[in-house]
Design goal:
The protein has 345 residues and is an alpha+beta fold. It folds into 3 domains: 116 residues, Endonuclease III, domain 1 (Orthogonal Bundle); 90 residues, Endonuclease Iii, domain 2 (Orthogonal Bundle), CATH 1.10.1670.10; 118 residues, Nucleoside Triphosphate Pyrophosphohydrolase. α1 packs across α11, α2 packs across α3 and α8 packs across α11. It is elongated and about 80 Å long. Keywords: 4Fe-4S, DNA damage, DNA repair, Glycosidase, Hydrolase, Iron, Iron-sulfur, Metal-binding. It catalyses: Hydrolyzes free adenine bases from 7,8-dihydro-8-oxoguanine:adenine mismatched double-stranded DNA, leaving an apurinic site. Pfam families: HHH, HhH-GPD, NUDIX_4. Its cofactor is [4Fe-4S] cluster.
């Protein structure tokens, strides 16, 4: 039995029941694929259901405000995905009359849609024989065929795409692409896979050569940068506080946060009392205390944020402030959302 047939047989017996698998609607498939980029199914599924419930059609999503989309996305991370999601919905409605392109090339023209996502939509929705290559597929192919070429190198990307094309089942591409991704997600997992119970074990080069833990190979990762964030949580005489929206192209673009003092390292209370006016203006001398003694370490892909929250109480009235009780309406990074849930005035 050839590779693709074994994958399809395994899938028929083991596939998970997921809501987007009941449909070939490009909107639902696209939405699920964008949500599941760099996200496990268990984490992404509730978000998919929330989005479908709130925005049943691409027109509904296009009409939403960016704040509404970011708020619903809150906690999933990689917020550029949410902004691209919103931009693409508008593009589909305004430029394509609410109908997704039905070709691989056309799908690639959508914002935030790369080779993998276009292949998934093309094959699942339109039965176009384009192979998908995501992290799960890289792992399956690398191990089964014993390929040591780094999967994040230009050579590796081209090589694995061609290999995926050679082994795919053209006649059952819709099921096959979902099958090989599912196989990598729950059978050929990154750590401690059940190789003895695997239907591909007899032909798996990595298993035969005892290289399962070594494959796939990745080039050295980008060095992780340390950053020190100090959030100033202002509380005035009327229980109003200050929020600001992040601009620029850095992390958390267009999300809201408390006034931020970024420093080169940890600072103490005396230093904060000297420096708070670098980011906020308060007429009186505020009472400041440190909310968390130990840094909250928030890990992003290429940077770790060492964060402290400072409570800044003032008898002044912050005319440009907002009621503290309304904070939950704003889309904020999960780091700040967790603080809001914890802190009580």
């Amino acid at each position: 039995m050839i590779f693709s047939h074994k994958i399809l047989l395994w899938y028929a017996q083991n596939k998970r029941s997921l809501p987007w698998r009941q449909s070939t609607d490009p909107y639902k498939i696209w939405l699920s694929e964008i949500i599941l980029q760099q996200t496990r199914v268990a984490q992404g599924l509730p978000y998919y259901l929330k989005f479908i419930n709130r925005f049943p059609t691409v027109e509904d999503l296009a009409r939403a405000s960016e704040d509404q989309v970011l708020k619903l996305w809150q906690g999933l991370g990689y917020y550029s995905r949410a902004r691209n999601l919103h931009a693409t919905a508008k593009m589909v409605v305004n430029e394509y009359g609410g109908v997704f392109p039905d070709t691989f090339k056309g799908l690639l023209g959508l914002k935030g849609v790369g080779d993998y996502t276009a292949s998934a939509i093309a094959s699942i929705c339109f039965d176009i024989p384009e192979p998908v290559v995501d992290g799960n597929v890289y792992r399956v192919l690398s191990r089964y065929f014993g390929i040591g070429t780094p999967i994040n190198s230009s050579e590796g990307i081209r090589y694995f795409k061609q290999m995926a094309r050679e082994v795919m089942d053209v006649g059952q591409i819709r099921d096959y692409n979902q099958a090989i991704m599912e196989f990598g997600a729950i059978q050929c997992v990154p750590k401690n896979p059940d190789c003895q119970g695997c239907p591909l074990n007899q032909g798996c080069v990595a298993l035969q050569k005892k290289r399962v833990d070594e494959l796939p190979v990745k080039q050295n990762k980008t060095k992780v940068r340390k950053r020190y964030f100090n959030y100033l949580v202002v509380i005035d005489s009327e229980n109003r506080t200050l929020l600001q929206q992040r601009k620029g192209r850095g992390i958390w673009q267009n999300l809201w946060e408390f006034p931020l003092l970024e420093t080169k390292g940890n600072i103490n209370l005396a230093e904060m009392e000297q420096r708070y006016n670098e980011v906020i203006t308060i007429e009186d001398a505020p009472e400041i205390h440190q909310f968390n003694q130990d840094d909250i370490v928030h890990k992003l892909s290429h940077q770790h944020l060492y964060t402290k929250f400072w409570i800044v109480k003032t008898d002044s009235y912050m005319g440009n402030g907002i009621d503290f009780g309304t904070l939950e309406a704003y889309p904020v990074p999960v780091l700040i959302a967790d603080f809001i849930k914890t802190f009580k005035i």
